[in-house]
Amino acid sequence: MTDRRFPLRLDLKRGTVDMSHGAGGRATAQLIAEVFQAALDNGLLAQGNDQALFSPPAGRLVMSTDGHVISPLFFPGGDIGCLSVHGTINDVAMAGARPLYLSAGFIIEEGFPLDDLVRIVQSMGEAAKAAGVPIVTGDTKVVERGKGDGVFITTTGIGVVPDGIQISGDLARPGDAILVSGSIGDHGVSILSKRENLGFATEIHSDTAALHDLVAAMVASVPEIHCLRDPTRGGLATTLNELAFQSGVGMQIREECIPIKAEVSAACELLGLDPLYVANEGKLIAICPADRAEHLLATMRAHPLGSESAIIGAVVEDDLHFVQMETGFGGSRIVDWLAGEQLPRIC
Amino acid sequence: MTDRRFPLRLDLKRGTVDMSHGAGGRATAQLIAEVFQAALDNGLLAQGNDQALFSPPAGRLVMSTDGHVISPLFFPGGDIGCLSVHGTINDVAMAGARPLYLSAGFIIEEGFPLDDLVRIVQSMGEAAKAAGVPIVTGDTKVVERGKGDGVFITTTGIGVVPDGIQISGDLARPGDAILVSGSIGDHGVSILSKRENLGFATEIHSDTAALHDLVAAMVASVPEIHCLRDPTRGGLATTLNELAFQSGVGMQIREECIPIKAEVSAACELLGLDPLYVANEGKLIAICPADRAEHLLATMRAHPLGSESAIIGAVVEDDLHFVQMETGFGGSRIVDWLAGEQLPRIC
């Protein structure tokens, strides 16, 4: 159907975003129709209002937001589009919640190729569809060349928490077991190798993935889970420190139990990175009562996104809230917060 | 209380944001604690998780998101902080909804003064508090100098729609009355005069304001309202065209009925702008059955944010969905969509 508003269709192959696409008039409407609605097609978005209307199930909801400024925009295993869907779905899921809806706000730099924008938005649409979590409302702004960097995407999600589930970063208790859902460092190493054109013999792929289905299986099987968190920026080490501080406890982990791929380990050694601080985008940390840990581990391993799960340590009493690691050589060291920037713009 | 994580407090007077504040480690945690939590203090944000947990009233919810890239960041009558709160509250309210909660995602350019960031976040906190709509979760990213422009803020809001209210852009019907809640063009002219250092004798202030309380009075008094929309980017003209297109109707408005301040009119003439296309941030358009229009007008005028409300025209049948305006000289002209960019980065 032709739309009298747009006598000429956008040139999605050779065109670029210009300032008029952010001005709120006809050009904005055309960008929304021919790029965003085309790729994110769903009934709620098609309402065409400045907000989406829906009736969530009664009960406790969670809301989470995440800005994505990753560079480069396309990387082995994903792109900023699917990452921005997975990232917020995961933040919602880490409350034990079932994600319901997403919003997306785009800040696009003038001159950005429409072709790249279409690829990114299609990747978002596919990720949202695969996850069963539609993007129901959005916004587009354009900034002048040199005032942005390609595209930034801020997604926000809401989800519903099943009755009886109480998961929060302040609920870790001495004696609890600490689990991780798979190998660490894949995402950060993938980005860095792409950014630096390192060309490793084995290409390392980002682990970007939506974890809500894994979480649903986990909370159904072990509703007593105390904490869930995805170790993104700052990596496993920083996330454990956050949880230790928030819960007022210490943690004791064992290096040999932490899953890490041989090629990621090798790349980290080459680059002088500590994999404990490297970002992940498809992994989670779970803390649960010790007597439920083996059952939780079995549930996680039975899920495709948790097949390499491991118990990596235990929560201990410590008024200073330290995270300590027993190293492979039988020693012990304090695993502190990430102090500065290890890898900028990793997500 | 001193926090062992941060032995030295941030220098909020002379310090700047650096890349480490976006890396997710200790510096990020300190920025969140000493800037964001300090200014946005509320119980839900203090949960300290990557998501906020709450129990909304049962019923229909709406969700809306808006990115804010306004330049300059500070302008007569407001700043990007309060604007980002008002903008999303208004998008939620335009469904007739009562806004409940906001999230905020910050994308900050390396080198941005902490002093300015504190002013902006305090302004957000004050706007959120005045509106009774807390900012319950957030995210902070930092991009390298020259890859952003000071700060961009994406806010997302959710709200609950009262039973019996059905407001949507596709519900305008021939015969309906069109109302506007006050003078148009104030925001856009304020930004432009500041940007261009025009120094008018009378400083023109942005009308940035949260309209949810006005909307609550309107839907309580006239639940039959068909459409509500805030004429931001693209101004009154573009918003009327959106509604006409969405509802499959035409619109007939009268120039002499449209409220506009003398100084805004003069500034527009000087700058070669058509005030119909200039952005507003504290005004709304309402469309309702003709026989309820006078009652709705009286309700709007009784509210401080609607005291200059006016009935500006009527919805008509028109298969081409034109917006036509009877001019002051007795003629008539088509008021089309904003075609290109009139004022970039106005919100």
Automatic annotation (TrEMBL), chains A, B:
Any single GO BP term: protein maturation
Gene3D superfamilies: PurM-like C-terminal domain (3.90.650.10), PurM-like, N-terminal domain (3.30.1330.10)
Domain PurM-like N-terminal as annotated: residue spans: 48-161
A Pfam cross-reference name: AIRS_C
Family: Belongs to the HypE family.
NCBIfam families: hypE
Name listed for the protein in its UniProt record: Hydrogenase expression/formation protein HypE
